[in-house]
Amino acid sequence: MKLAVVGTGYVGLVTGTCFAETGNQVTCVDIDARKVEKMRSGIIPIYEPGLEELFLRNTNEGRLQFTTSLAEGIEGAEVIFLALPTPPGEDGSADLKYILGVAKDLGPLLKQYAVIIDKSTVPVGTAEKVRAAIAENATVDFDVISNPEFLREGVAVEDFMKPDRVVIGTSSEKAKAVMNRLYAPLVRQGNPIIFMDERSAEMTKYAANAFLAVKITFMNEIANLCEKVGANVDDIRRGIGTDSRIGKRFLFAGIGYGGSCFPKDVQALHKTSQDYDYDFSILQSVMSVNEDQKTKLIPHVLDYFGGDVKGKTIAIWGLAFKPYTDDIREAPALYNIRELIAQGAHIKAYDPEAMENVANLADIGSKITFTKDAYSALVDADALMIMTEWPQFRTPEFEKMESRLKNKVIFDGRNVYELEDMQEKGYTYYSIGREKVN
Ligand SMILES: NC(=O)c1ccc[n+]([C@@H]2O[C@H](COP(=O)([O-])OP(=O)(O)OC[C@H]3O[C@@H](n4cnc5c(N)ncnc54)[C@H](O)[C@@H]3O)[C@@H](O)[C@H]2O)c1
Ligand SMILES: O=c1ccn([C@@H]2O[C@H](COP(=O)(O)OP(=O)(O)O[C@H]3O[C@H](CO)[C@@H](O)[C@H](O)[C@H]3O)[C@@H](O)[C@H]2O)c(=O)[nH]1
Protein backbone atom coordinates (compact mmCIF):
# COMPACT_ATOMS: atom_id res chain seq x y z
CA MET A 1 0.00 0.00 0.00
CA LYS A 2 1.04 3.61 -0.41
CA LEU A 3 1.02 5.55 2.86
CA ALA A 4 1.77 9.07 3.98
CA VAL A 5 2.73 9.96 7.55
CA VAL A 6 2.41 13.63 8.43
CA GLY A 7 4.65 14.55 11.40
CA THR A 8 7.84 12.60 12.03
CA GLY A 9 8.22 12.87 15.78
CA TYR A 10 8.39 9.72 17.84
CA VAL A 11 5.07 8.32 16.71
CA GLY A 12 5.31 9.36 13.07
CA LEU A 13 8.79 7.97 12.62
CA VAL A 14 7.99 4.65 14.28
CA THR A 15 4.70 4.33 12.35
CA GLY A 16 6.34 5.16 9.02
CA THR A 17 9.37 2.95 9.57
CA CYS A 18 7.43 -0.06 10.83
CA PHE A 19 4.87 0.09 8.01
CA ALA A 20 7.72 0.37 5.49
CA GLU A 21 9.21 -2.73 7.13
CA THR A 22 5.95 -4.60 6.50
CA GLY A 23 6.26 -3.84 2.79
CA ASN A 24 4.39 -0.57 2.29
CA GLN A 25 5.64 2.45 0.35
CA VAL A 26 5.79 5.26 2.94
CA THR A 27 6.41 8.98 2.55
CA CYS A 28 6.93 10.97 5.76
CA VAL A 29 6.10 14.67 5.73
CA ASP A 30 7.50 17.16 8.23
CA ILE A 31 7.61 20.95 8.26
CA ASP A 32 11.01 20.86 9.92
CA ALA A 33 13.26 21.14 6.86
CA ARG A 34 16.46 20.43 8.81
CA LYS A 35 15.01 17.23 10.20
CA VAL A 36 13.86 16.12 6.74
CA GLU A 37 17.32 16.84 5.30
CA LYS A 38 18.91 14.83 8.10
CA MET A 39 16.60 11.86 7.51
CA ARG A 40 17.20 12.02 3.78
CA SER A 41 20.91 11.70 4.41
CA GLY A 42 20.35 8.60 6.52
CA ILE A 43 20.48 10.16 9.99
CA ILE A 44 17.74 9.14 12.42
CA PRO A 45 16.68 12.12 14.56
CA ILE A 46 15.77 10.21 17.75
CA TYR A 47 17.38 7.54 19.88
CA GLU A 48 15.12 4.51 20.03
CA PRO A 49 16.50 0.97 20.41
CA GLY A 50 16.10 -1.11 17.24
CA LEU A 51 14.65 1.70 15.14
CA GLU A 52 17.82 2.81 13.37
CA GLU A 53 18.38 -0.57 11.75
CA LEU A 54 14.84 -0.62 10.33
CA PHE A 55 15.08 3.05 9.35
CA LEU A 56 18.30 2.49 7.38
CA ARG A 57 17.13 -0.71 5.71
CA ASN A 58 13.89 0.84 4.52
CA THR A 59 15.40 4.15 3.39
CA ASN A 60 18.18 2.30 1.54
CA GLU A 61 15.69 0.00 -0.15
CA GLY A 62 13.52 2.99 -1.14
CA ARG A 63 10.37 2.12 0.84
CA LEU A 64 10.76 5.04 3.26
CA GLN A 65 11.03 8.58 1.94
CA PHE A 66 10.89 12.09 3.36
CA THR A 67 9.61 15.43 2.19
CA THR A 68 8.57 18.82 3.51
CA SER A 69 5.79 19.04 0.92
CA LEU A 70 2.36 17.83 2.01
CA ALA A 71 1.18 17.73 -1.62
CA GLU A 72 4.12 15.56 -2.68
CA GLY A 73 3.87 13.35 0.43
CA ILE A 74 0.22 12.42 0.05
CA GLU A 75 0.27 11.93 -3.72
CA GLY A 76 -1.38 8.59 -4.46
CA ALA A 77 -1.58 7.66 -0.74
CA GLU A 78 -4.43 5.37 0.23
CA VAL A 79 -3.79 6.01 3.92
CA ILE A 80 -2.67 9.29 5.51
CA PHE A 81 -1.54 9.20 9.14
CA LEU A 82 -1.65 12.42 11.14
CA ALA A 83 1.05 12.01 13.82
CA LEU A 84 1.21 15.64 14.84
CA PRO A 85 1.84 17.20 18.26
CA THR A 86 -1.11 17.82 20.58
CA PRO A 87 0.57 19.83 23.35
CA PRO A 88 -1.40 21.22 26.27
CA GLY A 89 -2.99 24.59 25.52
CA GLU A 90 -3.15 27.28 28.20
CA ASP A 91 -6.24 25.74 29.81
CA GLY A 92 -4.80 22.19 29.82
CA SER A 93 -6.84 20.95 26.87
CA ALA A 94 -5.03 19.36 23.92
CA ASP A 95 -4.12 22.04 21.40
CA LEU A 96 -5.46 20.94 18.00
CA LYS A 97 -3.93 23.72 15.91
CA TYR A 98 -1.35 21.43 14.20
CA ILE A 99 -3.91 18.76 13.34
CA LEU A 100 -6.64 21.10 12.17
CA GLY A 101 -4.10 23.19 10.23
CA VAL A 102 -2.94 20.15 8.28
CA ALA A 103 -6.55 18.94 7.86
CA LYS A 104 -7.49 22.26 6.26
CA ASP A 105 -4.52 22.03 3.88
CA LEU A 106 -5.36 18.42 2.99
CA GLY A 107 -8.84 19.10 1.57
CA PRO A 108 -7.86 20.61 -1.79
CA LEU A 109 -4.88 18.25 -2.18
CA LEU A 110 -6.85 14.98 -2.09
CA LYS A 111 -7.13 13.53 -5.58
CA GLN A 112 -8.70 10.14 -4.76
CA TYR A 113 -10.35 8.31 -1.83
CA ALA A 114 -8.08 8.13 1.24
CA VAL A 115 -8.39 7.05 4.84
CA ILE A 116 -7.12 9.85 7.05
CA ILE A 117 -6.05 8.61 10.45
CA ASP A 118 -5.82 10.51 13.72
CA LYS A 119 -2.76 8.77 15.21
CA SER A 120 -2.11 11.60 17.64
CA THR A 121 -3.71 11.53 21.08
CA VAL A 122 -6.76 13.73 20.62
CA PRO A 123 -9.85 14.53 22.69
CA VAL A 124 -13.28 13.12 22.03
CA GLY A 125 -14.85 14.84 19.04
CA THR A 126 -11.61 15.55 17.17
CA ALA A 127 -12.30 13.19 14.25
CA GLU A 128 -15.49 15.18 13.57
CA LYS A 129 -13.51 18.43 13.57
CA VAL A 130 -10.85 16.99 11.26
CA ARG A 131 -13.55 15.71 8.91
CA ALA A 132 -15.19 19.14 8.79
CA ALA A 133 -11.86 20.93 8.19
CA ILE A 134 -11.00 18.62 5.27
CA ALA A 135 -14.52 18.74 3.84
CA GLU A 136 -14.39 22.55 3.52
CA ASN A 137 -12.32 22.22 0.35
CA ALA A 138 -12.35 18.53 -0.59
CA THR A 139 -13.69 17.35 -3.95
CA VAL A 140 -13.32 13.59 -3.42
CA ASP A 141 -14.69 11.02 -0.97
CA PHE A 142 -12.59 10.34 2.17
CA ASP A 143 -12.87 8.82 5.66
CA VAL A 144 -11.42 10.18 8.90
CA ILE A 145 -10.87 7.55 11.56
CA SER A 146 -9.32 7.33 15.01
CA ASN A 147 -6.40 4.93 15.54
CA PRO A 148 -4.68 5.90 18.80
CA GLU A 149 -1.10 4.79 19.40
CA PHE A 150 -0.08 2.91 22.55
CA LEU A 151 3.67 2.54 22.01
CA ARG A 152 6.10 3.27 24.83
CA GLU A 153 9.34 5.09 24.17
CA GLY A 154 12.34 2.82 24.65
CA VAL A 155 10.42 -0.26 23.44
CA ALA A 156 8.55 1.47 20.64
CA VAL A 157 9.45 -0.94 17.83
CA GLU A 158 8.43 -4.00 19.84
CA ASP A 159 5.19 -2.28 20.94
CA PHE A 160 4.37 -1.26 17.37
CA MET A 161 5.25 -4.53 15.67
CA LYS A 162 3.61 -6.72 18.32
CA PRO A 163 0.81 -4.56 19.71
CA ASP A 164 -1.33 -5.89 22.57
CA ARG A 165 -4.20 -4.55 20.50
CA VAL A 166 -4.95 -2.10 17.71
CA VAL A 167 -7.89 0.21 18.40
CA ILE A 168 -9.77 1.56 15.38
CA GLY A 169 -12.64 3.98 15.71
CA THR A 170 -14.82 4.19 12.62
CA SER A 171 -18.23 3.24 11.30
CA SER A 172 -17.03 3.16 7.68
CA GLU A 173 -16.88 -0.39 6.24
CA LYS A 174 -14.57 0.86 3.48
CA ALA A 175 -12.08 2.24 6.05
CA LYS A 176 -12.34 -0.95 8.15
CA ALA A 177 -11.32 -3.04 5.13
CA VAL A 178 -8.28 -0.80 4.50
CA MET A 179 -7.27 -1.07 8.19
CA ASN A 180 -7.64 -4.85 8.19
CA ARG A 181 -5.28 -5.03 5.22
CA LEU A 182 -2.75 -2.57 6.66
CA TYR A 183 -2.55 -4.13 10.12
CA ALA A 184 -2.75 -7.79 9.05
CA PRO A 185 1.02 -8.38 9.41
CA LEU A 186 1.04 -6.92 12.94
CA VAL A 187 -2.01 -8.55 14.47
CA ARG A 188 -1.69 -12.04 13.09
CA GLN A 189 0.10 -13.22 16.25
CA GLY A 190 -3.35 -13.26 17.82
CA ASN A 191 -3.52 -9.74 19.19
CA PRO A 192 -6.80 -8.27 18.00
CA ILE A 193 -7.93 -5.24 16.09
CA ILE A 194 -10.71 -3.80 18.21
CA PHE A 195 -13.20 -1.84 16.13
CA MET A 196 -15.44 0.68 17.86
CA ASP A 197 -17.01 4.07 17.21
CA GLU A 198 -14.60 6.96 16.84
CA ARG A 199 -15.50 8.73 20.09
CA SER A 200 -14.88 5.56 22.08
CA ALA A 201 -11.53 5.07 20.35
CA GLU A 202 -10.49 8.62 21.20
CA MET A 203 -11.54 8.07 24.80
CA THR A 204 -9.80 4.66 25.02
CA LYS A 205 -6.39 6.30 24.57
CA TYR A 206 -6.94 8.77 27.41
CA ALA A 207 -8.47 6.07 29.63
CA ALA A 208 -5.38 3.85 29.14
CA ASN A 209 -2.87 6.59 29.97
CA ALA A 210 -4.89 7.99 32.86
CA PHE A 211 -5.39 4.52 34.33
CA LEU A 212 -1.64 3.83 34.23
CA ALA A 213 -0.93 7.25 35.78
CA VAL A 214 -3.43 6.43 38.54
CA LYS A 215 -1.75 3.05 39.10
CA ILE A 216 1.72 4.61 39.46
CA THR A 217 0.41 7.43 41.62
CA PHE A 218 -1.41 5.02 43.89
CA MET A 219 1.89 3.21 44.47
CA ASN A 220 3.67 6.51 45.07
CA GLU A 221 1.12 7.34 47.75
CA ILE A 222 1.52 3.87 49.28
CA ALA A 223 5.28 4.56 49.25
CA ASN A 224 4.83 7.86 51.04
CA LEU A 225 2.74 6.13 53.69
CA CYS A 226 5.26 3.25 53.93
CA GLU A 227 7.94 5.76 54.90
CA LYS A 228 5.74 6.96 57.75
CA VAL A 229 4.63 3.57 59.08
CA GLY A 230 7.95 1.78 58.55
CA ALA A 231 6.95 -0.58 55.71
CA ASN A 232 8.76 -1.37 52.44
CA VAL A 233 6.96 -0.41 49.20
CA ASP A 234 8.91 -2.97 47.14
CA ASP A 235 7.55 -5.77 49.31
CA ILE A 236 4.06 -4.32 48.94
CA ARG A 237 4.54 -4.27 45.16
CA ARG A 238 5.53 -7.92 45.16
CA GLY A 239 2.72 -8.73 47.56
CA ILE A 240 -0.03 -7.17 45.48
CA GLY A 241 1.43 -7.56 41.96
CA THR A 242 1.17 -11.33 42.17
CA ASP A 243 -2.61 -10.94 42.34
CA SER A 244 -3.50 -11.38 38.67
CA ARG A 245 -6.37 -8.91 39.04
CA ILE A 246 -3.81 -6.22 39.88
CA GLY A 247 -0.88 -7.32 37.69
CA LYS A 248 2.86 -6.83 38.16
CA ARG A 249 3.47 -3.94 35.79
CA PHE A 250 3.41 -0.19 36.40
CA LEU A 251 3.58 -0.63 40.16
CA PHE A 252 7.06 0.85 40.63
CA ALA A 253 7.11 3.73 43.08
CA GLY A 254 9.55 6.54 42.36
CA ILE A 255 9.96 10.25 41.91
CA GLY A 256 6.87 10.56 39.77
CA TYR A 257 5.88 9.92 36.19
CA GLY A 258 7.12 12.17 33.39
CA GLY A 259 7.41 12.01 29.63
CA SER A 260 5.52 13.54 26.77
CA CYS A 261 2.28 11.66 27.41
CA PHE A 262 1.07 10.95 30.96
CA PRO A 263 1.34 14.53 32.27
CA LYS A 264 -0.38 16.13 29.30
CA ASP A 265 -2.96 13.39 28.75
CA VAL A 266 -4.12 13.30 32.39
CA GLN A 267 -4.46 17.08 32.22
CA ALA A 268 -6.36 16.93 28.93
CA LEU A 269 -8.78 14.25 30.18
CA HIS A 270 -9.40 16.33 33.28
CA LYS A 271 -10.16 19.33 31.05
CA THR A 272 -12.55 17.24 28.93
CA SER A 273 -14.40 16.20 32.10
CA GLN A 274 -14.69 19.86 33.12
CA ASP A 275 -16.01 20.76 29.66
CA TYR A 276 -18.76 18.19 30.16
CA ASP A 277 -19.51 19.34 33.73
CA TYR A 278 -18.12 16.17 35.27
CA ASP A 279 -15.95 16.32 38.37
CA PHE A 280 -13.30 13.65 37.65
CA SER A 281 -11.71 14.24 41.04
CA ILE A 282 -9.26 11.31 41.03
CA LEU A 283 -7.42 12.97 38.13
CA GLN A 284 -6.99 16.19 40.09
CA SER A 285 -5.41 14.17 42.95
CA VAL A 286 -3.14 12.29 40.55
CA MET A 287 -1.83 15.54 39.08
CA SER A 288 -1.16 17.16 42.42
CA VAL A 289 0.41 14.05 44.02
CA ASN A 290 2.69 13.66 41.00
CA GLU A 291 3.79 17.30 41.19
CA ASP A 292 4.87 16.81 44.82
CA GLN A 293 6.42 13.42 44.14
CA LYS A 294 8.90 14.80 41.63
CA THR A 295 10.84 16.76 44.24
CA LYS A 296 10.27 14.35 47.09
CA LEU A 297 13.96 13.75 47.74
CA ILE A 298 14.89 17.43 48.01
CA PRO A 299 13.89 17.80 51.70
CA HIS A 300 16.09 14.77 52.52
CA VAL A 301 19.01 16.35 50.64
CA LEU A 302 18.52 19.59 52.57
CA ASP A 303 18.27 17.73 55.90
CA TYR A 304 21.43 15.81 55.18
CA PHE A 305 23.36 19.03 54.55
CA GLY A 306 21.90 20.82 57.58
CA GLY A 307 19.29 22.78 55.62
CA ASP A 308 21.53 24.35 52.98
CA VAL A 309 23.03 23.07 49.71
CA LYS A 310 24.70 26.35 48.75
CA GLY A 311 28.13 25.58 47.32
CA LYS A 312 27.56 21.81 47.41
CA THR A 313 28.17 19.71 44.31
CA ILE A 314 25.44 17.17 43.58
CA ALA A 315 26.08 14.39 41.07
CA ILE A 316 23.01 13.36 39.06
CA TRP A 317 22.78 9.97 37.38
CA GLY A 318 20.02 9.95 34.76
CA LEU A 319 18.32 12.85 32.97
CA ALA A 320 15.87 11.15 30.58
CA PHE A 321 12.31 10.69 31.86
CA LYS A 322 12.94 6.95 31.77
CA PRO A 323 15.68 4.57 30.54
CA TYR A 324 16.32 3.70 26.86
CA THR A 325 15.34 7.13 25.58
CA ASP A 326 16.94 10.55 25.13
CA ASP A 327 13.56 12.19 25.75
CA ILE A 328 13.60 14.72 28.60
CA ARG A 329 10.06 16.03 28.31
CA GLU A 330 8.65 16.46 31.86
CA ALA A 331 11.60 14.46 33.22
CA PRO A 332 11.64 14.49 37.04
CA ALA A 333 15.44 15.04 36.88
CA LEU A 334 14.88 18.52 35.48
CA TYR A 335 12.61 19.57 38.36
CA ASN A 336 15.26 18.44 40.85
CA ILE A 337 18.11 20.11 39.00
CA ARG A 338 16.22 23.41 38.71
CA GLU A 339 15.43 23.34 42.42
CA LEU A 340 18.99 22.50 43.46
CA ILE A 341 20.49 25.16 41.20
CA ALA A 342 18.02 27.71 42.61
CA GLN A 343 19.25 26.81 46.08
CA GLY A 344 22.88 27.40 45.11
CA ALA A 345 24.10 23.85 44.41
CA HIS A 346 26.38 22.94 41.52
CA ILE A 347 25.26 20.01 39.34
CA LYS A 348 27.45 17.40 37.65
CA ALA A 349 25.32 15.15 35.50
CA TYR A 350 25.62 12.00 33.44
CA ASP A 351 23.06 10.26 31.22
CA PRO A 352 23.91 7.74 28.48
CA GLU A 353 21.64 9.42 25.89
CA ALA A 354 19.96 12.60 27.12
CA MET A 355 22.84 15.01 27.92
CA GLU A 356 22.72 16.85 24.61
CA ASN A 357 19.02 17.59 25.01
CA VAL A 358 19.56 18.97 28.52
CA ALA A 359 22.59 20.99 27.40
CA ASN A 360 20.29 22.71 24.87
CA LEU A 361 17.85 23.92 27.55
CA ALA A 362 18.06 27.71 27.76
CA ASP A 363 17.62 28.04 31.53
CA ILE A 364 19.86 25.29 32.94
CA GLY A 365 21.86 23.83 30.05
CA SER A 366 24.91 26.03 30.57
CA LYS A 367 24.82 25.74 34.37
CA ILE A 368 25.39 21.98 34.48
CA THR A 369 28.71 20.18 34.15
CA PHE A 370 28.14 17.13 31.94
CA THR A 371 30.58 14.26 32.29
CA LYS A 372 31.83 11.57 29.90
CA ASP A 373 30.78 8.71 32.16
CA ALA A 374 28.91 7.98 35.36
CA TYR A 375 32.00 7.85 37.61
CA SER A 376 33.36 11.20 36.42
CA ALA A 377 30.17 12.85 37.68
CA LEU A 378 31.10 11.69 41.19
CA VAL A 379 34.52 13.34 41.33
CA ASP A 380 34.41 15.85 44.23
CA ALA A 381 30.65 15.52 44.48
CA ASP A 382 29.09 15.87 47.94
CA ALA A 383 26.25 13.45 47.14
CA LEU A 384 24.75 11.32 44.39
CA MET A 385 21.14 11.49 43.22
CA ILE A 386 19.71 8.80 40.92
CA MET A 387 16.89 10.05 38.72
CA THR A 388 16.61 7.43 35.94
CA GLU A 389 17.05 3.68 36.33
CA TRP A 390 19.45 3.06 33.42
CA PRO A 391 20.71 -0.54 33.81
CA GLN A 392 24.35 0.56 34.16
CA PHE A 393 23.47 2.41 37.38
CA ARG A 394 22.16 -0.78 38.96
CA THR A 395 25.48 -2.59 39.12
CA PRO A 396 28.23 0.01 39.49
CA GLU A 397 31.70 -0.64 40.91
CA PHE A 398 31.09 0.65 44.41
CA GLU A 399 34.83 0.98 45.20
CA LYS A 400 35.20 3.32 42.24
CA MET A 401 32.27 5.34 43.54
CA GLU A 402 33.71 5.60 47.04
CA SER A 403 37.05 6.88 45.83
CA ARG A 404 35.34 9.73 44.00
CA LEU A 405 32.38 10.80 46.15
CA LYS A 406 33.18 13.09 49.10
CA ASN A 407 30.43 11.52 51.22
CA LYS A 408 28.99 8.04 51.00
CA VAL A 409 25.44 9.26 50.49
CA ILE A 410 22.93 8.35 47.76
CA PHE A 411 19.46 9.80 47.18
CA ASP A 412 17.76 7.26 44.94
CA GLY A 413 14.53 8.27 43.17
CA ARG A 414 14.12 4.89 41.45
CA ASN A 415 14.93 2.32 44.18
CA VAL A 416 17.73 0.73 42.18
CA TYR A 417 19.63 -0.79 45.14
CA GLU A 418 18.73 -3.30 47.83
CA LEU A 419 18.64 -1.87 51.34
CA GLU A 420 20.80 -4.72 52.73
CA ASP A 421 23.53 -3.98 50.17
CA MET A 422 23.60 -0.33 51.09
CA GLN A 423 23.65 -1.20 54.78
CA GLU A 424 26.57 -3.56 54.24
CA LYS A 425 28.51 -1.09 52.10
CA GLY A 426 28.05 1.64 54.68
CA TYR A 427 26.19 4.13 52.52
CA THR A 428 23.69 6.62 53.86
CA TYR A 429 20.88 5.75 51.51
CA TYR A 430 17.54 7.44 50.95
CA SER A 431 15.05 5.87 48.54
CA ILE A 432 11.31 5.98 47.92
CA GLY A 433 8.88 4.20 50.24
CA ARG A 434 11.61 2.37 52.15
CA GLU A 435 13.42 3.10 55.38
CA LYS A 436 16.51 5.28 55.38
CA VAL A 437 19.72 3.26 55.71
CA ASN A 438 22.56 4.40 58.02
N1 LIG B 1 5.82 10.07 22.08
C1 LIG B 1 5.12 8.99 22.39
O1 LIG B 1 5.62 8.05 22.98
C2 LIG B 1 3.67 8.90 22.00
C3 LIG B 1 3.02 7.65 22.09
C4 LIG B 1 1.67 7.56 21.74
C5 LIG B 1 0.99 8.69 21.29
N2 LIG B 1 1.63 9.89 21.21
C6 LIG B 1 0.89 11.04 20.68
O2 LIG B 1 1.27 11.20 19.29
C7 LIG B 1 1.30 12.59 18.92
C8 LIG B 1 2.67 12.95 18.38
O3 LIG B 1 3.61 12.78 19.43
P1 LIG B 1 5.19 12.78 19.16
O4 LIG B 1 5.84 12.53 20.49
O5 LIG B 1 5.49 11.90 18.01
O6 LIG B 1 5.36 14.32 18.71
P2 LIG B 1 6.67 15.18 18.46
O7 LIG B 1 6.42 16.49 19.05
O8 LIG B 1 7.87 14.37 18.82
O9 LIG B 1 6.72 15.32 16.85
C9 LIG B 1 5.79 15.95 16.07
C10 LIG B 1 6.38 16.23 14.69
O10 LIG B 1 5.39 16.89 13.91
C11 LIG B 1 6.04 17.87 13.10
N3 LIG B 1 5.07 18.87 12.66
C12 LIG B 1 4.52 19.89 13.35
N4 LIG B 1 3.65 20.57 12.56
C13 LIG B 1 3.67 19.97 11.35
C14 LIG B 1 2.99 20.20 10.12
N5 LIG B 1 2.13 21.20 9.99
N6 LIG B 1 3.26 19.38 9.08
C15 LIG B 1 4.15 18.37 9.21
N7 LIG B 1 4.81 18.10 10.34
C16 LIG B 1 4.58 18.89 11.40
C17 LIG B 1 7.13 18.41 14.00
O11 LIG B 1 8.14 19.07 13.26
C18 LIG B 1 7.62 17.13 14.69
O12 LIG B 1 8.65 16.50 13.94
C19 LIG B 1 0.88 13.34 20.18
O13 LIG B 1 -0.49 13.53 20.13
C20 LIG B 1 1.22 12.37 21.31
O14 LIG B 1 0.43 12.58 22.44
C21 LIG B 1 2.96 10.01 21.54
O1 LIG C 1 5.88 1.44 37.38
C1 LIG C 1 6.15 2.50 36.80
C2 LIG C 1 6.08 2.65 35.39
C3 LIG C 1 6.38 3.90 34.84
N1 LIG C 1 6.73 4.94 35.64
C4 LIG C 1 7.01 6.27 35.04
O2 LIG C 1 5.95 6.61 34.16
C5 LIG C 1 6.42 7.42 33.09
C6 LIG C 1 5.92 6.90 31.77
O3 LIG C 1 6.51 5.63 31.50
P1 LIG C 1 6.08 4.73 30.24
O4 LIG C 1 4.63 4.55 30.25
O5 LIG C 1 6.93 3.54 30.24
O6 LIG C 1 6.55 5.69 29.05
P2 LIG C 1 5.88 6.45 27.82
O7 LIG C 1 6.81 6.24 26.68
O8 LIG C 1 5.55 7.83 28.26
O9 LIG C 1 4.53 5.65 27.47
C7 LIG C 1 3.24 6.02 27.92
O10 LIG C 1 2.69 7.06 27.14
C8 LIG C 1 2.60 6.74 25.72
C9 LIG C 1 2.11 8.00 25.01
O11 LIG C 1 0.74 8.17 25.10
C10 LIG C 1 1.66 5.55 25.54
O12 LIG C 1 1.54 5.25 24.16
C11 LIG C 1 2.19 4.36 26.33
O13 LIG C 1 1.28 3.26 26.23
C12 LIG C 1 2.33 4.77 27.80
O14 LIG C 1 2.89 3.69 28.57
C13 LIG C 1 7.95 7.43 33.23
O15 LIG C 1 8.35 8.65 33.82
C14 LIG C 1 8.26 6.27 34.16
O16 LIG C 1 9.41 6.49 34.93
C15 LIG C 1 6.80 4.80 37.02
O17 LIG C 1 7.11 5.75 37.75
N2 LIG C 1 6.50 3.57 37.56
From TrEMBL:
The active site is at C261. GO terms for molecular function: NAD binding; UDP-glucose 6-dehydrogenase activity. This is UDP-glucose 6-dehydrogenase. NAD(+) binds at D30, K35, T86, T121, E153, K264, R329. Pfam families: UDPG_MGDP_dh (PF00984), UDPG_MGDP_dh_C (PF03720), UDPG_MGDP_dh_N (PF03721). Residues 315-419 form the UDP-glucose/GDP-mannose dehydrogenase C-terminal domain. Substrate binds at F150, L151, R152, E153, K205, F250, L251, F252, A253, G254, G258, K322. Keywords: NAD, Oxidoreductase. PANTHER family: UDP-GLUCOSE 6-DEHYDROGENASE TUAD (PTHR43750). InterPro entries: 6-PGluconate_DH-like_C_sf, NAD(P)-bd_dom_sf, UDP-Glc/GDP-Man, UDP-Glc/GDP-Man_DH_C, UDP-Glc/GDP-Man_DH_C_sf, UDP-Glc/GDP-Man_DH_dimer, UDP-Glc/GDP-Man_DH_N, UDPglc_DH_bac. Belongs to the UDP-glucose/GDP-mannose dehydrogenase family. Coiled coil: none annotated. It catalyses: UDP-alpha-D-glucose + 2 NAD(+) + H2O = UDP-alpha-D-glucuronate + 2 NADH + 3 H(+). GO terms for biological process: polysaccharide biosynthetic process; UDP-glucuronate biosynthetic process. Pathway: Nucleotide-sugar biosynthesis; UDP-alpha-D-glucuronate biosynthesis; UDP-alpha-D-glucuronate from UDP-alpha-D-glucose: step 1/1. Its EC number is 1.1.1.22.
